[in-house]
Design goal:
Elements: H1 11-31, H2 41-49, H3 60-70, E1 83-84, H4 93-105, H5 112-115, H6 117-133, E2 145-149, H7 152-166, E3 175-180, H8 186-193, E4 201-204, H9 214-226, E5 230-237, H10 249-259, E6 262-267, E7 291-295, H11 296-299, E8 307-311, H12 331-334, H13 353-362, H14 364-387, E9 392-394, E10 402-407, H15 415-432, E11 436-442, E12 445-451, H16 459-483
Parallel strand pairs: 1-11, 3-4, 3-5, 5-6, 6-7
Antiparallel strand pairs: 2-8, 7-8, 9-10, 10-12, 11-12
Helix pairs in contact: 4-13, 6-13, 7-8, 9-10, 13-14, 15-16
Length: 484
């Protein structure tokens, strides 16, 4: 079995196996004509269940043959221009190259003696990102820092951990977190994990553009203080999952300063604006935050996972620091050995930073920003298309690249029946494999959602998918009327 270990003696075998895998994926990408086959769990499960993991196939070619039937054939392909579902982006080739390198070398980014140059590359990218945010300008002299994470949920959790510790109280029952009705569910989840309880999170209503109402936030902060409670943190969102809306960051920052609350900006989605040459101003005020979440695997076109938590004052990362004699003993601090585990909730951690490094070294930030600007431009064109189409109600003009809309039939007025028609249309479209769209609820009603992250998607693709949705909805309503 040693022949399967990657080392100097098996380098040629490694090259052949990986090349064969790459060639198969390349053929699949080149020949895929729709984002999904429409396979159901019931249809696919028998093929997976039939695999006997205790009887190995013996070689990579046979395993790849089998993989075709249990995965590659029916995978959901985000590179297809009619994948319009969740916040999944097509990936850029330099990042995939980085993925291949980091997987083979397999550095662990917890300590210097496991990663060496990997540590310095991650730190360089952290500094680059904090500079793009503007932490080096507000306030003067702050020592910004950060660490790569597994994703936005982990980044938000760590940010709120830092906020809890900075609140400097033993009475967790008095701590409160303020966030908008449209913020990510990980805020509530983090509060639970941090022992704060379900009442700790106060949801602030949004305006018609789905942005946090700062006037209501101010009133809630004042009420919190009057009740003897502690405003622990305000979580602003720069790119809500459903609407791509960006909260009023300067106004929220001013309130955070006034009430002594930690300001966290969840820019998991909107971080692509950091590389934009035309839309960067939409993030104005983010430099005033105490911490920021970014997901490069959403709007920097990186493979999952590639995320980071950035903080304006690097000293606050000490709240995640623990020293183990076998790993990062306290003496390594005095010796100035750069151990990233001192900043991280994770111990063993992949060298995900390499993907972004390769992307910036090949394409540059402007190249990434141009791709993100393209999908934002596409969303604006899609909004115009939806607004002019009497079959659809579109909720809000996009700030980023999402569109939330609802099919409205001419003859049916029952909101519940319209809900069912939209649900049916989404499921039927997914089952057909012709396109993938997402769904959500707005004010209790069922809506559909385009998440546009593929610059190869066109307005014609959007129009075609809208016709498909209308056709499925009309088919459902027609059958319902026949059986009524």
């Amino acid at each position: 079995m040693r022949s399967h270990l990657l080392n100097d003696a098996t380098a040629e075998s490694y090259r052949r196996s990986v090349t064969e895998g790459v060639e198969r994926v390349a053929r699949k990408l080149a020949t895929t004509r729709r984002p999904f086959t429409g396979v159901t769990p019931a249809a696919l499960a028998p093929a997976v269940d039939a695999v006997d993991l205790d009887k190995p196939l013996g070689d990579s070619s046979a395993a790849l043959d089998e993989l075709e039937s249990v995965y590659l054939r029916d995978a959901v392909y985000f590179h297809h221009p009619r994948y319009l579902g969740h916040l999944n982006c097509p990936v850029v080739i330099p990042a995939v190259l980085g993925e291949a390198v980091l997987s083979a070398v397999n550095s662990s980014l917890d300590t210097w003696d496991q990663s060496a140059g990997g540590t310095l590359i991650e730190r360089k990218l952290i500094n680059w990102t904090t500079s793009r945010i503007g932490f080096d300008q507000w306030p003067a002299g702050a020592s910004a820092d950060g660490v790569f994470t597994s994703g936005g949920s982990q980044s938000n959790l760590q940010a709120l951990l830092l906020a809890r510790e900075e609140a400097k109280t033993n009475d967790l029952s008095k701590l409160r977190i303020f966030t908008s009705d449209c913020s990510h569910f990980s805020v509530q989840k983090s509060a639970g994990l941090l022992g704060l309880g379900p009442d700790a999170v106060i949801s602030i209503p949004v305006d018609r553009t789905r942005r946090m109402q700062s006037v209501v936030l101010a009133a809630e902060l004042e009420a919190c203080r009057a009740e003897g409670l502690t405003p622990m943190a305000i979580v602003a969102t720069a790119g809500t999952t459903d609407f791509g809306s960006i909260d009023p960051l300067h106004e929220i920052a001013a309130l955070a300063d006034e009430y002594g609350a930690w300001m966290h900006v969840d820019a998991a989605y909107g971080c692509g604006l950091l590389a934009s040459r035309t839309r960067r101003h939409l993030l104005d005020g983010i430099e005033r935050a105490d911490s920021v979440t970014v997901d490069f695997h959403k709007s920097f076109f990186q493979p999952v996972s590639s995320s980071a938590l950035l903080v304006r004052d690097g000293a606050t990362l000490r709240h995640a620091t623990y020293h183990a004699d076998y790993l990062n003993p306290l003496r390594t601090v005095a010796e100035q050995i750069p151990n990233q585990v001192d900043k991280s909730l994770q111990t063993t951690r992949r060298f995900d930073a390499l993907k972004l490094w390769m992307t910036l070294r090949v394409m540059g930030a402007d190249g990434v920003g141009e791709l993100f600007d393209e999908v934002c431009d596409l969303a604006e064109a899609g909004f115009d298309l939806l607004a002019a189409d009497p079959r659809y109600d579109v909720v809000v003009e996009p700030q980023l690249s999402t569109l939330v809309y609802r099919y409205i039939p001419e003859t049916v007025t029952s909101p519940a029946e319209i809900d069912r028609a939209n649900l049916y249309a989404r499921k039927a479209l997914f089952a057909s494999g012709e396109a993938v769209v997402a769904g959500t609820k707005v004010d209790g009603r069922q809506y559909l959602k385009f998440t546009l992250l593929n610059p190869e998607t066109t307005v014609a693709d959007i129009a075609a998918v809208l016709d498909l949705i209308a056709g499925h909805a009309e088919q459902y309503l027609g059958e319902t009327l026949v059986h009524a």
